[in-house]
Amino acid sequence: MIKYLVGFFILLNISCNKSNNTSVACFKGKLVLKGVCMNYVIQITEGDVDKALYESSWQNPLTNTTYQNVFGLASTCTFPTTIKEGDEFYFSIPKNPTVPACADCKAYSPTPSKKISIEICNN
After folding, report:
1. pTM beyond 0.85, yes or no
2. Which residues have C-beta within 8 Å of that of residue 110, sequence separation ≥ 6?
3. Closest Cα partner for 93 from 34, 51, 59, 39?
């Protein structure tokens, strides 16, 4: 009977440890272009982000400036206003991003065609 109780507590401990593991991969990025109406371009500076999610090279058609490893910001409603152009920050890519309702500005600034919804990491 005791060995069954010990086995039960071991299994319970293992399952609790697995369910408490909420760590999320955080990547380092830089806001390289802060266009009008939250048309932001973010460069990946550290981390192993799936290459299918971003542009390995993108040229801004207005300035002919070329950026490496960039994407357009899809989560405009939740991106902090305190992050300025040139600032570096850590972010995660949620598996099932929520899209809150917010004002939708129609002004245009060029961004890469690939866009990612991100969440800021508290590092």
Report:
1. no
2. 35, 39, 60, 61, 62
3. 51
